[in-house]
Amino acid sequence: MSLPSDFTWGFATASYQIEGATEKDGRGPSIWDTFCKIPGKIADKSDGSVACDSYNRTAEDIALLKQLGSKCYRFSLSWSRVIPIGGRNDPVNQAGLDHYRKFVDDLLDAGIEPFITLYHWDLPDGLEKRYGGLLNRTEFPLDYENYARVVFKAIPKCKNWITFNEPWCSSILGYSSGFFAPGHTSDRKKSPVGDSAREPWIVGHNLLLAHGRAVKVYREEFKPTDKGQIGITLNGDGVYPWDPEDPADVEAADRKIEFAISWFADPIYFGKYPDSMRKQLGDRLPEFTDEERALVKGSNDFYGMNHYTANYVKHKTTQPEEDDFLGNLETLFESKKGENIGEETQSFWLRPNPLGFRNLINWLSKRYGYPNIYVTENGTSIKGENDMPKEQILQDSFRTKYFRDYAKAMAEAVSEDGCNVKGYMAWSLMDNFEWAEGYETRFGCCYVDYENGQVRTPKESAKEMKGIFDALIK
Ligand code: PNW
Question: Which entry of 91, 395, 402, 469 is 20 to 30 Å from 431 by CA?
Fold first, then answer.
């Protein structure tokens, strides 16, 4: 069991979760700045205004990456630092753009390969206010295309581009459950606006169009000279039928992946939505025009995979609810036989199950023709970590075991099953703003002391990562 010699590995973060400095150097507000101000949305009433202060500590973060042996680093850009209001006729903020250009130069000088995510959920609030942000099928893709072009032009040295992080989360958590910004949902106790039956599917469609536009621009205007690669990052969990003897559960397990992943990946690889989704959602799922289909089909140079956990899947026998987004099924932590999927963590949705990772890599590889895969996120929270004494947090045996087991499962998918995984980025370089969970849930391989000047200290998992990969890479 091994990984090829050119395999790259490192750590990942996202702008709003680590940068802070939300009002510095001309940055405009994003929908997360606005969302955090609404009472009741963030568990500990916090926001990203200081976070890990990474905007002011780029040298420190690069030194940390170097110390840990990281070969690559995935981070995201704050669109509203680059174009404060966001639109294609709005002014570009040179200071914001220069900051990221220098960061890339400095990473390369340190021998670390940058992976830039253009969009990790922090839409400029100006676009939300101007035309409803991601809900706008014509304006949003055009403004995103312009933003992408501005960035491609300014940072030709970056060779790895991710258009969107987890469009599933933007669509479902932003427009169905309302758990994430901008918080739309049909539940009027939670939000005065939203239509969970329709908006998530519209948003998903518009994200695909914007992705397609940015990829077209990169391929036509930049790739011939810059020679980089571009793709989207999708999230999805491993699946096991609740009752493997029941064909309806076996089918439901596949359908679960189709509703989570193939929703985006099928249009990108095949130019159409999965039949299972069309069947359940009917005309609530938008249709591609011929022009849109041509734009989206074939628009991945690589597949970005975010992966954390697995579930047992049980089919439902009732008609799907209007706001169902799972595919008319239940997800469970226990199988019919009483097997448990994995240990509890601090995140209600996350329980470690490394075999689910290997299985899903195989499922995706088979369906999409063995594409190059970069695992752009994988990691875990730990039950009660935030309340542990610092020494115990730094010991970090649960997280270290998680990474060891998941890296091994991935290496098996590569060397035993023939899947083409080319790189791996652990989530996350450091503890950070965990969205609606605030700072109480920690996902970092490095501990961040929020009470004492945001000092970073590597936990055991951060220190072990190099050893884990050195042992696997040929
Ligand atoms: C990912 N869920 O989000 C994100 O890309 C990161 O920004 C985030 O910090 C990380 O995972 C850990 O949560 C997810 O509810 C958030 O299933 C929620 C879910 C999945 C992924």
Answer: 469
